[in-house]
Amino acid sequence: MTLRVSTLFFDMNSFYASVAQAEEPALMGRPVGVLTTDAPGAACIAASIDAKRRGVGMGTRQDEARRLCPGIVFRPVKHDVCVRYHHAILQAVETVLPIHRVWSIDECSCLLTGSQQELSRAMQIGHDLQQAVLDRVSPALRCSVGLAPTRLLAKLAAGLEKPGGLHWLLPHVLPDRLAHLALDDLPGVSWRMKARLEAAGITDVPALYHLDPKRARAIWGNVAGERFLRELRGETVVWPETHRGMIGHGQVLTAGNKTPEGARLVARRLLVKAAARLRREGFHARSLHLSVKCAEAGYIGHGGDIRATQDTFFLLEVLGRYWTALPPHRPLSVSVTLGGLVPDAGVSADLFAPAQDRRALCAVVDRLNQRFGQDTVRYGQLPPHHVPYTGAKIAFGRIPTAEDFLE
């Protein structure tokens, strides 16, 4: 019997730390911790393989990392550099196999067709892909590759060995090949879902694998549970397409911005960035929400529906009213969200809209900043403390574009 797989999933190993080593080859082979920012109190958001083996991981403070891993070197994350390497990696992969979908800054999947699906051929393709990244981008950038009939299984196969693993999963070796994993090692099983599964008597991966699909639907509370289980078993599952519903940015306030006025100016800057994305991505927003986390009151917020717009001036006016109704005390973080997105082509003219149309002016500001650099033209005062990459940080499920770093 010929073994066949249809999905190839690749996962860059210790991506942020590997990028730091690619930028500074002298760091290769040394333990590296990547910090949220270049500050004494900053924590690690990533660590190199050597540092991970000594217990350094996400959230580890610098002093603790030094205790666990003497000789560790720290570098602040450079989001624009990481995005540049991300695109270089995609170009290298495309020399071997077309990319089907980008899942995050360090994860992508490809579809195998025809003779590519034969396991021996697929394994060679996986090896060629790993080598292409090493040769064309940097020897510091290693990736693990998984092969399977579904994306979920391919992702799990890629995680079986790091760094540089190349593994496959097919139904005839399941669930034994996954029996050593904890429930929350499975992508999509959060600690909350793990608790729900355990409450239902499902305490390990083999028990989940043999679960009745209808019971999985009941435990999840929707059809996603059945889809997840069938994909775990290697069955073809069609997931519905998701649609963009909002654009949002948030920021934990630095010491220099932890005042009501500093927080207000940070909120304005985040909204300016979000509005520029609206225009660039071709959407109008129909709601605006503001949230502030305070030291004593916790999260407070204000928001509501607005006329469909991509006018930064109008959005800042609305934000000003929301802020007046929401005076924060000892703010710690702020976020703004533009919701109810509709494509530009789907927006109807508003009979009661102001006669003055400022979209053209906003577009001119966008072009000037893209051409001459960030904040060439500003919408009012900037926050007291400048924080790099405001509104242009890499987040789960979102990879900034080159334009994000210039707005």
UniProtKB/TrEMBL annotation:
Its EC number is 2.7.7.7. One of its GO terms (molecular function) is DNA-directed DNA polymerase activity. It is an enzyme of class 2 (transferase). It catalyses: DNA(n) + a 2'-deoxyribonucleoside 5'-triphosphate = DNA(n+1) + diphosphate. SUPFAM superfamilies: DNA/RNA polymerases. Belongs to the DNA polymerase type-Y family. Monomer. Poorly processive, error-prone DNA polymerase involved in untargeted mutagenesis. Copies undamaged DNA at stalled replication forks, which arise in vivo from mismatched or misaligned primer ends. These misaligned primers can be extended by PolIV. Exhibits no 3'-5' exonuclease (proofreading) activity. May be involved in translesional synthesis, in conjunction with the beta clamp from PolIII. This is DNA-directed DNA polymerase.
